[in-house]
Write a structure and sequence with these properties.
Layout (H helix, E strand, L loop, with lengths): L11 E9 L3 H11 L4 H12 L5 E2 L7 E2 L3 E4 L2 H21 L6 E19 L5 E17 L2
Length: 145
């Protein structure tokens, strides 16, 4: 896979999730929120989002206002998939010999993946197109001093 950034292969570990069945909108906001965090803090944050204890701030899509939160939601499905990918990136780093406690998320981004075309039956023998959207997510972690 071709990543959107250049990184040092010896100090960094990466993972790429392709055609994940999550919303590109939610996955973009979750990835934007965890960039720069250490991996234990990011795992804790994503687990709190899954448990509906901490919301994800929405910066681009600002139509989801909730009382006491502001612009934000609890994207549980996207958080689960990103958490799985983050744990895979940590496992890749440990396999390379990097210290898992000193890892920091250098890059996390999400892009719209391919659309899976399906058809929904309608009345009188007709059908309408119903596309399922997928996302491509890439995460790069690096070891810090």
């Amino acid at each position: 896979m071709k990543y959107s950034i250049e990184f040092d292969q010896e100090k960094c570990a990466s993972v790429y999730g392709r055609d994940l069945h999550i919303s590109p909108k939610h996955s973009r906001e979750v990835c934007k929120e965890i960039v720069g965090m250490s991996t234990p803090n990011a795992e804790k944050y994503l687990e709190e989002v899954i448990a509906l204890k901490r919301p994800v701030r929405y910066t681009k899509y600002k139509k989801a206002h909730r009382k006491g939160i502001g612009c934000g939601r609890y994207p549980v499905n996207a958080s689960r998939k990103v958490l799985e990918l983050l744990r895979e990136a940590v496992a890749n780093a440990e396999f390379k010999g990097l210290d898992s406690e000193k890892l920091r998320i250098k890059h996390a981004s999400a892009y719209p993946g391919r659309k899976i075309k399906r058809y929904m039956p309608k009345a009188q023998g007709r059908s309408g197109e119903h596309s399922e959207r997928t996302s491509d997510v890439e995460i790069v972690v690096e070891e810090t001093e």
